Fold these 4 entries.
Entry 1:
Amino acid sequence: MEFVNPEGLRLDGRRAMEMRQLRAQIGAVSKADGSAVFEMGNTKVIAAVYGPREVQNRSQQMSDQALVRCEYSMANFSTGDRMRKPKGDRRSTELSLVIRQTMEACILTHLMPHSQIDIFVQVLQADGGTRSACINAATLALADAGIPMRDLVTSCSAGYLNNTSLLDLNYVEDSAGGPDVTVGILPTLDKVTLLQMDAKLPMDIFENVMQLAIEGCKAVANYIREVLQENTKQLEVRRGV
Amino acid sequence: MLQSKVFSKRTRGGKVQKTVREVYLRDDLPCGAPFCKVCDTSKARLSPSASSPILIVDTNVVLSQIDLLENPAMDNVVVLSVVRDEVKNRNIAVFKRIETLCYNSTRNFFVFYNTLHKDTFVHDVSGESPNDRNDRAIRVATQWYQNHLGGQTRVLLITNDRENKRKATEEGISAETIESYVKSLGQPNLLDLLVKPVSEDVEMEDADALRPSKRKVLYAEHKPMSEITSGLRCKIYHQGKLRVNRYNPFEAYVGSESIGDEIIIYGRTNMNRAFDGDVVAVELLPQDQWREEKFLSIADEGEEEEEEDVHLAPNSADDALRNTNPPNSADDKNSVPCRPAGCVIGIIKRNWHSYSGSLEPLPMPAASGSIAHALFVPKDRKISKIRIQTRQLENLLDQIIVVAVDSWDRQSRYPSGHYVRKIGEIGDRNVENQAVLMENDICDEPFSRQILNCLPPLPWSVSAEDLANPIRMDLRHLLVFSVDPPGCKDIDDALHCTTLPNGNFEVGVHIADVTNFVHPGTPLDDEASQRGTSVYLVERRIDMLPKPLTEDICSLRADVERLAFSVIWEMTPQAEIISTRYTKSIIKSCAALSYVEAQARMDDSRLVDPLTTDLRDMNTLAKIMRQRRIERGALTLASAEVKFQIDTETHDPLDIGMYQIREANQMVEEFMLAANVSVAEKILKHFPLCSLLRRHPTPTKEMLEPLLRTAAAIGLNLDVTSSKALADSLDRAVGDDPYFNKLIRILATRCMTQAVYFCSGDLSPPEFHHYGLASPLYTHFTSPIRRYADVIVHRLLAASLEINKLPQIFQDRTQLTSIAENLNYRHRNAQMASRASVELHTLIYFRKRPTDEEARIVKIRSNGFIVFVPKYGIEGPVYLTPRGEKGDGEWFVDEQQQQVKKMDGSVSYSVLQSVKIHMEVVEPQPNRPKLELSLI
């Protein structure tokens, strides 16, 4: 199948290095300590953060750092076929773990011993790149909750189809069976916290694709920073400073 | 600008699902006109002069008039992406042709992505069919072009759809039909390329006037697609690919999975306008109509008779005559004929392309310049005659021309088509060769500049870097030699054999290192992969790689240093392989022997020079290996290969005879097989999912049926349960005359399919088996100069030795599979072309030499039999009764005995019997010579 036409345009009209449209909104769940909705094209994810709060299960409490928990789920209406998926299937367990580990790496857990932070992410609409969107949403929600972090974590995916590196795959491109590299970075520290790929790629191409994904992450980071600044300004106005 | 596209589609499970896709509309897509002041003109491809109009074509114009579009007279064409996508969905062959046009730098074709442009994107309107939407999109794009370019040039919409044309005119777009546009160009020859429109489109005025007003309906209507699909689902109809009998165009087979057998279709009426290769839907006839056909040919209602030709003896089941006679005898009334018969009720996918052939001579040629109707007779006998219209009849009568098929309506006996181009005069050997090449889709164009630029500069010699390269072993000290057919210039294999101090032998097979020069992704590599194989015709060779590589740089000629890829074994004197090494190397061949020379050296006991001793050692090893292979169950098959002696000046054949196989041939073959097997093991170990291997499927019981029946008739019992059993029983089959065994082997070979290339990831290991060689794994490694498969295998082997990286294509299994399919296709075509070339030369040879020769009966028919002439490797019918009559019961067939007998029992002919025949070239029609066999 032709994913990139000779003009260099992808099926949805983007060029190889272009991302889908980003949208973000902070404070979608007022009951939570921090929350955000993050959209990458037609992929829409909501994240809510509770904490730092008392550890619910005493046996899990740690005296030197905070406990970070993450729960990922997919809304039943998120894909076209209205299939009821059982909770805790392999995919969502794996994704929960991936998100938890990525977020844990940037939260300054040692500042909050004997406490727990809960991150809930739910996919409202899925169109490829849910993993990245979840991480981006979680970052925003954590920032909204005022949880101390080393840096923002941002994530973006890239793939390789028709001998071309493609940024931010949508569902059609994702299901083509090519490699899908998901990268998460700490943009100001310039460190990679997440790198996943379930396919084989020659080393030089892989580096190329990964570099593209990192560029994508940086673009996402810029956008998130803008959103946060805008949000802070509004908070300032509301407080009447 | 962001838009979303919403549509519903049916999932595989049958549920309807709503899909939402984003569309990012762009404002940076150029219009393609070089004089445009707004767009980026760096990629503009349209004609720089604003005087010629810009043509915007609709989908049907591209689909039906592609031959016309390929003509240089049609230029400055914009192909909209909506058209491009639709063409891609409807006909992939046409799509490829239009793509080639769009990227041909000499033509001004431009693809405009109207579906992604912000001004030309159209929204779905409820109640509008996809077709209407596309038509609207085309009109919107045309309008945009008109406004965008202002008054700078004329923009013309070319459409044959009446409704679309009307709407376009209403919207103020200038629209024309293809006919009126071509007429306005004022080139009458172009009109021949035009395809006649189907009735619902705009009528072509002059075509209609000449047509007889009333015609009788000859063929049944094709069922609508919806009925076919439902019929297929409830098993009333059966789907399959139609294959026309090569020797009897009135008989076809449809391999159907739903009933697990082949359905026979008799006669053109039942075939109902289906072509060879079409995917059709078939309905079974009632059982009492499952008749048997034993005539050599049957005359279809009122149609002039077509008879069997004399042709080369087939080499495998793929090109052999299919046996249709059920084994029951005529008097056994109760038995059910074993094959179901059917008739075509609908065509699911057409396999129309262009065909080469000539026009049927007409009694009275029309006046020049006016439109004449003519019948075109394709060279390929599987294809029916085609009706064409032409304005240049007198130019075409004695020419071989190319014709494409357009339609076949119920009223006409023949399909109608249009003239595409001419190849040359009938009878001219070059032209006939050209037609053979074209019929088999073989590219004979000289290599382009771009490709030749990929070659290393000449004169080439092994450089110091090559010598210093650590991956290359210096084997120049070894006594390496090559053994090939006489006159061979593309020497791709060489051998060496030395005795080791421990009494073992070191045997090396050195193969030309083609991949050192052909790098993946270069134009040279792309071309080679397209060509797939070199084609050997009787008097010439069409190379896969350019001549400097084929004959010089890669060819392992004597006394020059050459780069090679070597497989080196250590073998015990019992020919057990102890170790295998693979390495790139540098060799210096000391002798390029022919098979005859090598054989002579081995036989001459006075010679004791090192080369001859090595030859003898190798021969001893080869014999042991061969014996072991045969014990494993490898089949010794035989084919009737012929060899021509060609006059060097006139290129006429001087003599033909069977190709003689010597011990030296077998020796070289044995080591090549061993090298191929070793390499196959190595690459499969490293790349289990993306190796290119070769397999030979085990023949099914049905395929061996004709062999068994023939064998039974002469009292021979063949065991076909395994290849080993078959090999043994073939060995036992020795009759009283020396040729008997070979004949049986030839018949056996004919029952098998050909070996094929495949990608190891597509099949499971048990299916990798090579039946003929009785080897679990096999590949092609030893002829990279003339086969692309070997080039791929070389790259795989180099990658497994970590010499090179694995090229990109191996990452993509679908791509590798398509390469394997292309190789199989090219390989088959190359063989067909060689056979056609031999047939052509046989005809030329016998034209001046009517000959009497001994022949063997291989098949029995009720009005004659088919004989095989061993000396010339040809096969053809001999008629006992004059053609056209059905024999009036004078002769009858005894199925059990495989005999045809005269009613009074005085004369009988049985299968495998030897007969004397007379061969002579006759010309029933001027310029159409054929070989005729008759009994003496």
Note: The interface with chain B takes residues 2, 5-7, 9, 11-14, 18, 20-21, 41-42, 80-81, 127, 163, 170, 172, 200-202 of chain A (CB under 8 Å).
Entry 2:
Amino acid sequence: MRAVGAILISLVLTTAVIGNAYYQKKQFYPSVVYITKSNPSMAVIYLQAFILVILMGKLMRKVFFGQLRAAEFEHLMERSWYAVTETCLAFTVFRDDFSPKFIALFTLLLFLKSFHWLAEDRVDYMERSPVISWLFHIRVLSLLLMLGFLDTHFVCHAYQSTVTKGASVQLVFGFEYAILLTIIVNILIKYALHTVDLNSENPWENKAVFLLYTELVMGFFKVLLYLAFVVIMVRIYTLPLFALRPMYYTMRAFKKAFNDVILSRRAIHNMNTLYPDATPEELAAADNVCIICREEMVTASKKLPCNHIFHTSCLRSWFQRQQTCPTCRLNILRTPTAPSHAPPPQPAAAPAAGGAAGPAPAGVAPPGLGMAPIPPGVNPFQPFGGPGPIWHMWQQAAAAAGQRAGDQQQQQQQPRQQQQQSSGSGSGGQSTSASGSGANAPSNQAGGASGGGAQPPQQPGTSTGSNVPVFCPFPFLPFMPPPPMPPANFAGLSLEELQRMEGHARENVEARLQCLRNIQLLLDASVTMMHQYSMVVQSTARMPPPSSPPQASTSANNTSSEPVPKPSVTPAETRHKFEKGDNLEGAAGPSINTTTTPTTTTTETGNSEASPVNDETREQQEIRRRRLQKFAQTSQTTE
Amino acid sequence: MAGSALRRLMAEYKQLTLNPPEGIIAGPINEENFFEWEALITGPEGTCFEGGVFPAKLIFPPDYPLSPPKMQFTCEMFHPNIYADGRVCISILHAPGDDPMGYESSAERWSPVQSVEKILLSVVSMLAEPNDESGANVDAAKMWREDRAEFNRIAERIVRKTLGIPTP
């Protein structure tokens, strides 16, 4: 009612102004001159023009959209408010060009923009509307074609004008219409996708993926356009404040599209590699309805480790947001698909290789055994999608070392060692899965190898609940941390334990803290152990190097399945750690000297004969031994 | 084929019409727009809301069922878990990512397995047993804890109001 009133008033005013002018001047041209010269008359004419434009817009809207939905109207109002503000900001940059034509062009731009927004909303709504009539298709198509044509025309016009007359406000128009053109292309692609989907009998599963990629590519073009525009504007005029807000939103949308694509790709990848397709029998056993879309599963469906079955496409879109099973909320990334945890309760191998390595290789042996202090139970990398490569390497090395221990100790008659020998050689076979026994073995072996000087500060076996014979004759470390109770392998954590660590309640936080503390203890322990290694190296350097050890470790190398070059790399790392350990803890006295020697002398003899010598590896060993001596010297000098 | 959100909403509507749960009516306000529903919930028996019929509005996001709908009572409500403007605050309506109250475990959050029916049933049980730990309406939570008689009196007034019976 108010709108009609405003229209009528403006109409009456215009008639009055024109009538008055004609009444005074009697002729056409003088009256036109009179109106343009008089400011009040011009104001009325402008008002009338504005109202005519709005009426025109309403008419066009009726033709192309019919009744607007409430959400569309709200959206339109919100966006046009911003657009008007930004236009006012643009006026400040181009105040020299200010003229009625300039305002008319901006008004036209605003109108076209609002039609683009409405078209976008309409096409988005296609997916949610139960009935799509022919009228809808005709309207959308004709509107898109018309808008696309207008955009191209204005872009060309702006380009021509800039080329012929130099940079002017046409730059802004050209850029704005170019942005609008990308929007049109985006809408067209969406429209095509939706139409294809609507006309197909079965749901089109890849549509969401296509939409994602469209969004990404179009977002990229828009970001490029905005960047180019800002650069040009800064060089010619000044910083275009009015373009900053849309630029920010465009960049944010692009980032989101990028993230979405990455997440989607990850979800697809996970699904294709980790989860098996559900078989018809499994589908029949379940009630055959995908709980996400509530439709029958006749098309591709996947089974999760928790035995819940869903449509592949439904799962994909859900995994993009959450990596949990929709039904039981099992975290699918934390749960390995194959039941890989078989906690070996057998006592792990212990100082088996005590004889294998003499005093000198005590520092050499750790390459394979460097991980010894880290018990197999604790693997902080595991939650992030399975064992990392380092962990694998460690486990293999551990298994190899275990095997080595078993092989070499055949002549040794100590009952304890026999017991461990079996577990050691057993673990040698299963390289990764038997990480429990495999990694335990070398840890104790390291203890023996260094004559006990490098006894692991805590027994990893405690985690798996195995009763490893504690081989710890060295109480000389007052700061030795008590054996923590590290969680068994995260994969082996029970659902309860995992759930206990989720959430924000006090107990959950405490559980997490406990877990972190365990990890810290383990880290401390490994630092301690490194320190001890370094002391052993020092002590061995002070002693005259015995002749047999190289052979002993050579044999160890022969039997191990490891590639030969690896040990030659690792000493560098260990040495690095030694120095670190020295810095951290300060050097302890060379008291190990006395303790190491007895053990080594006893074991040395049995081993030097037991191992066959290979020429190639001997060379390698010689190099390694010399390098070690050098390390020892450097570490001495650094002290 | 229409969008998956639309198909799922249609399926749920059909299910709710064929097997309506006791004390709950729900459906789209307008059959041309399946993303806005209206629901009528009767107050659970044996509670202070007994006998009331409470209208509510459900707004579904375009990516339903991946995101939860929003629910808002359109009548006056006085309840610890309902904001003054009628919005309902229960964990089942919160996406697993955000935690407005900082106390909910992810196990009770939204997941595509939930449905309109489950939401409305949860709301009924919320009416019966308010959770005064999470105060969407702090006044109501305080009164529920400290002055139950007054709370019951207000609830009765609201029940009468929804039924159009003048308060005595």
Note: Residues 38 and 57 of chain B are 5 Å apart (CA to CA).
Entry 3:
Amino acid sequence: MADRYSFSLTTFSPSGKLVQIEYALNAVNQGVTALGIKATNGIVLATEKKSSSPLADPSSLSKISLITPNIGMVYSGMGPDYRVLVDRARKVSHTGYKRIYNEYPPTRILVQDVARVMQEATQSGGVRPYGVSLLVAGWDEGILPEDEEGGEQKEGEKGEEGEKKAGGKTGGILKGGPMLYQVDPSGSYFPWKATAIGKSATTAKTFLEKRYTEGLELEDAVHIALLTLKETIEGEMNGETIEIGIVGPPADHLLGVEGVEGAVGPRFRKLTPQEIEDYLTNL
Amino acid sequence: MSSPFSINGGAAVAMVGKDCVAIACDLRLGLQALTVSNNFPKIFQYGDNVFLGLTGLATDVSTVSDLFRYKVNMYRLREERHIAPKTFANLVSSSLYERRFGPYFVSPVVAGLEPKTGAPFICGFDSIGCIDFAKDFIVSGTASEQLFGMCESLWEPDMVYLDAFFVMRGCLLIMMPEPRCALRDHITGAPQRRRPRCSLRLGRPRLHHREGQGHKAVAEGAAGLEGFRSGGGHRGSEGTNISVMAERAIYGVVTIGHSETPWSRPHQETSHQAQAPWELWQ
């Protein structure tokens, strides 16, 4: 009976499930663990780079991708599906936004666009859902005046004794700041302070719950990300087997030009193997 | 004469002041020499301190203003925030260029204050969306030569709210068909004068031709009128009175976004100001 509802996705099972979506989630849950942590001044995305053979060249493998200068993405699940989604995300951020408004989409808008692509695969004929969950990390410029933001921050600090500096004060289209989203094969998406997807997601999330604190700095977040990864990782941990992407301060050295007025470097960048090694030695 | 840009007539001007922008247009709707209406506004508001002036073919003015109302409302629903003037200007540009080979016959002007910094922003466009960013002023429409003359002679950097208002008012009078005396006076007599109200007065007696319609227009009034009237007596009482308002109402709408008036009276907020971002305009 069950397999009668397994092939056409436009069909609900009598219990109200779309079982192909559940199978897609199973594919995700067999994937290599990826995690993301939001800090006050940035976000870290981290994952393990697992190669099937010692003969593979790890430098050619890349699981964390830049979508716009301020938004990056990592996945858990099926690599080829992810590549398609990265292409779509890059394309839609231009056709659906930059070519219209001459600015890059805020994180939520991009996430919604990618989520729409994933949802369409659950309702169209002749296709299967994407077998990936995504973690999308981005920085929004925001449109509220800076001083107002500062004032709010102060108020928040006073109200909650300085501990919850980041609580609700960072991220979002209005205030600006870091945002971290998870997108699932069904097309649903959730904002997170810190989360993990993939094989050891549950373990990793329990670990993150213990380690995560409000008002975290980016450097601490990278540290926690590596510690969490260490809990769940199967192979050796080094600069070649770990991949880290950060959303941080504008990286003007990546602009490729110098002395251009008003030019701001990308906030999203991937750490080099050397940088990862440096973090690992301090672990 | 048969250019679609000049059939209905009309002009708009926007300029930058200190922490403020001003945008103005005439209210005439014509059919060549025939005046069809004196209540056809060409300035549209699309957010807190985001204004669009549209001159050109009247049918396209309506179509394009409605199109942007739709687009901006959709933007606000999607993003749960108001559109910033720079973003809006780029939206105008890309929307017009979509019609590259069958353009709307309009010459838009955008004026606004950047929400993050409060910095004034103005720009103009050709009918296919090429943006003309300007630090000082933008003119468009059938009186653009006259407006250029006025702006070139009267505009100066860092004008405060009231000065900007008077310069705009001067600009409005100059583009009207009747008070040519004001044109003469400005071109020959008072290019350096900081406050052009005296010279502008020359035009006033002739303006009373349309008193009836003028007062009607006052009643239907433009946003910001009240704020100006209540501050009118500030610098001596010369020059500002209700008939000045009437002149303005007959011939144009001035809308000024600014953070603070020179007499530090809080800006009269439009009723839209308190709106939640996801509520729609108009």
Note: Strands of chain A lie at 34-38, 43-48, 65-68, 71-77, 132-140, 177-183, 189-191, 194-197, 242-247, 268-270.
Entry 4:
Amino acid sequence: MSKKKLKDHLINRDWCKGCGICVAMCPKDVLVLDGDEKAMASHPEKCIACRQCEKMCPDLAIEVITEDAHGKEE
Amino acid sequence: MAVKEYIRERFFPHMWCPGCGHGIVLNGLVRAVEELAINKNELVIVSGIGCSSRISGYVDFHSLHTVHGRALAFATGVKLSKPKLNVIVPMGDGDALSIGGNHFIHAARRNINITALVMNNRTYGMTGGQYSPMSGVGVKATTAPYSTIDNAFDCVELARAAGASFVARTTVYHVNQLSELIKKAIVHDGFSVVEIFSQCPTYFGRKNKQGGAVDMLKIFKEKTVLIGSDKKKDNPALMERGIFVEKELPEYCKAYDEVIARARKA
């Protein structure tokens, strides 16, 4: 099984309530709260696609899209 | 993760406060159902009253939003009439153990194949932060400004003593364990109880100066250990997480089918 690579963070800004759980729980400091108190991926290049933010979001507002070595989306 | 297939998007964003642990339980429940690949038409969510019970409205399964504390009684009716359906009952700590305390112990005693999720935030959030049967001694609440003097139930020991054949505990900080335990509880043939520590930053956190949602999640991390960990020997106050009871006992619907068979022969 090849390693999954990050493709995108899909953040639903209408659902995000800005609790900051994703920001605090991200092991690589990828996410921040922007001026509107909504989650935003400020350093996507650091993301290791662990999906901790996706699993811990109480608002179901984050989806981590990954791709394998052949560019297949998952 | 195909979350959207399992939720009713038209009701989002949901009504829970920012940072509410119940949203993380919903997240874990949806992931568990997706990983088990259960047909949505064979899954029933039955809930009572409270913040936790609003979960039944957000999932795109068959759902019953019933009366306070009595969700397990309604669920027993559903399960007995249609034993092939998977029945999941998410409840708050007050809903499950105070108002519905009797239904809880008797559903456990019967060992009927229902999955009970006790979302324990140690307060009545929806009605304004009154203390609950899980608050414990020395906790502040709107109804206990000088702190509580009531002991808390131990949900795990209560379920075990009442006869539940699967009893587990986890927290919303431990999200991987959360979905794994919900999966095991759904698959288990008998009454399954999963107690889930969940944070209420709005009432419990604020009244007890525990900080925001992130601080409360860190408390779950610090104050719990896996069953059998050496850390528990050094610090007996730590709460254990994991599976406490997992045994095969006669299941109620199957036993009832046997009664029907005996009656037909007579």
Note: Chain B touches chain A at residues 1, 3, 7, 12-14, 16-24, 26-28, 30-31, 172, 175-176, 179, 201, 212-214, 217 (CB under 8 Å).
